[in-house]
Write a structure and sequence with these properties.
Layout lengths: L4 E5 L3 H10 L4 E5 L2 H10 L4 E5 L14 H7 L3 E6 L4 H10 L3 E4 L3 H15 L4 H9 L5 H11 L8 E4 L6 H10 L7 E5 L6 H9 E2 L11 E2 L1 H4 L4 E5 L6 H13 L1 E2 L8 E2 L3 E6 L3 H6 L5 H7 L2 E4 L10 H8 L7 E2 L1 H9 L5 H14 L4 E2 L1 H18 L4 H10 L1 H19 L4 H8 L3 H11 L10
Length: about 450
């Protein structure tokens, strides 16, 4: 995080300490009264000045306002703090040149939000670095969408990112978090990666020690890991209605119960979610709760497929080869790349670049580009979690039967690898006792012992 020079003008020691705790990653100076405030504002350049409205400890005092024009003229981002604000005072503070005004009492959120707004207004890197290093795009429409999303980065407003697979939804979520000023982590998970609701529940909410057989130690869930930060949920439409309801409750109450625990755990996390599906269709089909959608849809950003962002193809290639072997393309090869449909979007382009960089010639002709494109498509298909054979099995016997078969085979293989130790199987596969014994009953293979037998 960029280290800022910050001045806090505050006569209350406790209030100073609360602000200081939120600014511990920055260089902070303090002033406790008007004379020292004037002196320090005039002595050096500060990025941000936090100014207490009432410095003389009198009910009708508004002496802090005297420092606002001084700080503004010194080029600082001026913030007025007040425990007793009124509409007239707020208006006067802005007339004098303050950039921000907040009521005291929630410094944990207010101070970080102020810093994030400053960084957004005065970024060290600016738009050039944003679109050249963090989210590569030359497409005018995409740039507008990204800039609009970053206007709300410092807030707790939930964001939904729409777009086909491989268009950069996770990258944009990381950029939003990076510009948010939040001190917590960026925690990402793909909801479609969890075959059962039990597995998703454990991953989201965590569990306490002894919550189920094999739970030797407690584990933090994603909700707790994202405390003070951002929780990014990809493929949100694959989450069951029951889990949507539980997550909705956790979002609204800012607390939840880990699996097997009677005690609630608090967590203040910001939700950014993504899906490649149409949200309204998900609601109509009964796969997405309307109240859940209303809670997670504060701002919607749509990312276009690469086929509609032709201007991004060559800049992305340059980015992928930065710091390594550079490539040159014949004019025919460039035309081929620009006319290609890119069904795998940026992910497919990255595979193409990796293949081209590994090739012998550094100058890529049209024939070579066509060959690398075919190899990239084949590689993308091999990376799919669902193979053609598995998909045919789903079509023949139905999804329910295919999932059960997958569970049974995975459990039997784990039993074999672990010498029949059921507790070790449950730990390795992150499943509970119920799922294990249902599978053993289906297969009729009850061999094996518990670890403590």
């Amino acid at each position: 995080m960029r280290k800022l020079k910050i001045l806090v003008v505050e006569d209350d020691p406790l209030a100073r300490k609360l602000v200081e705790e939120q600014l511990r990653d920055h260089e902070v100076d303090f002033a406790a009264d008007l004379p020292s405030g004037r002196k320090k504002i005039g002595a050096r350049r500060h990025d941000i000045c936090f100014i207490d409205l009432k410095l003389n400890n009198k009910a009708d005092d508004k002496s802090g306002l005297e420092l606002v024009p001084l700080a503004a003229n010194a080029g600082a981002y001026c913030v007025v703090m007040s425990g007793h604000d009124s509409e007239a005072v707020v208006e006067r503070a802005y007339e004098l040149g303050c950039d921000d005004f907040y009521a005291k009492g929630n410094e944990e959120e207010n101070v970080s939000a102020v810093v994030a707004r400053f960084l957004r207004k005065c970024p060290e890197d600016g738009e050039d670095r944003l679109f050249q290093d963090l989210f590569i795009t030359e497409d005018a429409g995409t740039r507008v969408s990204v800039i609009e999303a970053l206007k709300y980065a410092a807030s707790d407003l939930p964001v939904i990112i729409l777009g086909p697979s491989g268009t950069g939804k996770t990258s944009l979520a990381e950029v939003i978090h990076g510009r948010s000023g939040k001190r917590g982590q960026f925690v990402a998970m793909n909801c479609a990666d969890y075959a059962t609701e039990d597995l998703l529940e454990v991953e989201l909410f965590g569990y306490r020690k002894g919550a189920f057989t094999g739970a030797g130690d407690g584990r933090k869930g994603k909700l707790l890991l994202a405390d003070g930060g951002t929780l990014f949920l990809d493929e949100i439409g694959s989450m069951s209605l029951n889990m949507q309801g539980r997550l909705l409750k956790a979002i609204e109450e800012k607390s939840f119960h880990p699996v097997g625990s009677d005690s609630a755990v608090k967590s203040r996390f910001r939700i950014v979610s993504a899906t490649l599906e149409n949200l309204q269709n998900l609601v109509k089909k009964g796969r997405l709760r309307f109240d859940f959608l209303q809670r997670i849809q504060g701002l919607t950003v749509e990312l276009k497929p690469l086929a509609r962002r032709k201007d991004d193809i060559l800049p992305l290639i340059a980015f992928f080869t930065r710091g390594g072997r550079r490539l040159a393309f014949s004019q025919d090869a460039k035309l081929l790349l620009l006319s290609h449909g890119w069904p795998g979007n940026v992910r497919e382009l990255k595979k193409f670049v990796d293949l081209a960089v590994s090739g012998d010639p550094g100058r890529v002709t049209a024939d070579m580009a066509e060959r690398f494109l075919a190899m990239a498509r084949a590689g993308a298909a091999s990376d799919d979690f669902l193979t053609e054979q598995q998909y045919r099995a789903v079509l023949e016997g139905g999804l329910y039967a295919a999932v059960r078969r997958f569970e049974d085979e995975a459990i039997q293989r784990s039993l074999a690898d672990n010498g029949g130790r059921k507790n070790k199987v449950m730990t390795d596969l992150k499943i509970d006792t119920g799922l294990l014994y249902k599978s053993l009953k289906r297969t009729g293979k009850h061999g094996g012992k518990n670890d403590d037998d």
